[in-house]
Each structure stands twice: as C-alpha cells, then as structure tokens.
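During the no-cost extension, the postdoctoral fellow (Dr. R.K.) reprocessed legacy sequence entries with the updated structure-token encoder. One reprocessed record is reproduced below for audit purposes.
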Amino acid sequence: MVGAAGMRILVVEDEPRILAFLVKGLEAEGFEVDCAGDGSEALLRAGEAPYDVVVLDLLLPRVDGLTVLRELRRGRPELPVVILSARSDLPTKLRGFELGANDYVAKPFALDELIARVRVQVRHANGGNGDGNVVHAGRLELDLARRRARMGAVTTDLSDREFRLLHYLVLHAGEVISRERLLAEVWGYHFDPGSNVVEVCMRRLRKKLGAEAPIETVRHAGYRLAAA
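Re-encoded structure tokens follow.
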C-alpha cells in the first residue's frame, strides 16, 4: 500500500457536501488536502503549490473542468489528474483521456475506490521509472501517453478501444471483471447489445501482447488481469 503521509492533494469540487465528504475521507487516509471551489481557483492553487494528485470535477463555475485539465497539462504535464464527475457519458470520458486525465471516476462513487485509484496515481508518479504516464501490473507495462503496451520483449501500439480496455483491467488488476461491467465502463453500453465486442477486443489484445499475455478468462464470471 502506498503511504499517504506527506502526499498533497488538490480537490476541485463546487458542491460543498461532496467536498466535505472527500476532504474527510482523504484526510482520514493521511493525505494533506487543499480545496478549490471553481476552475479559476484550481488553476491558481495548482500554480502555487507542488501537489501530488488533483481530483477534478468537470461541472465547475467560472472555468470548466476540461479547460482546467487542458491548462494543467500545459503547465504541469507530469501532475496526475483523476476526474470525478457526474458526466459519465463515453464522449466526455474519451475527451478527458484525450486531454491527459490519468483516470476517470463517475459519480455516484465509492470513496474506497476513489482512494484506491488516487493511491495508484501516487505510486506511479513516485515509482522507480519516474514516469507518471506509465503504469504496471506484474510484467505488463502500459504507457498512458503513447497508448502502448509492453509485455516482456513485446511492445505494441494499441487502438483506442484496446487501450481503454487494457487500462481498465490494469486499474482493477487481480479482480474478476464481468463482461457486462466492461460493456458499461469501456463501451458505454448500459445494456447488453447482443454483440461480441468484448470477446473480439480481448482476442486482439491477447494476440498483440503475445503468449505471455496475463489476461485470464474466468468461466461464467468474466475476465481478470493477473497482477503478478
């Protein structure tokens, strides 16, 4: 587990009730938390202090969250940003990732999951490789900026959907993820469209990653990315 002591987080959220909930939960985990209630304040604070992670809402007064994200990437490209937003539609999620978000959590959310994802970003940003854009799960390495995966001696570029699928599996490494959950989170389908898009994409990923691909099929349950 990543130690939170000394780690400083900027939470950008204009809803007082949610903000108070986030601050209380993150501080209970040992993080130092600063707050911004609108986009302008967020950019001002981010320019003044060396934050380790930013938790960013999108529906903000004065300057919207995506604009904040764009400006953060210009000034602090290495700073991990976790979007936390009620906007859970696929186009908005894709736009967030295109602008450089490291992760995206939709509201309503589970605090434990958000904290786990924040810890992932802290770990990656402070890891031995020194590159917050590279995440690992066992021997698998995923470059978030280049959308490229490496498994042993095999390095491969990924399509947008392959990248989003593998990134989701990496974030939940070791966890069994159902097909329905992947359809909702990666494809944005909140119903079963009766297609085999998950299976087809999984086959492409396994082929690209080679014989040692750590993606497991769990019979009648879903898929799991082996973390070791």
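The two ends are 15 Å apart (CA to CA). The CA atoms of residues 183 and 197 lie 8 Å apart. The remaining legacy entries will be reprocessed before the final report is submitted.
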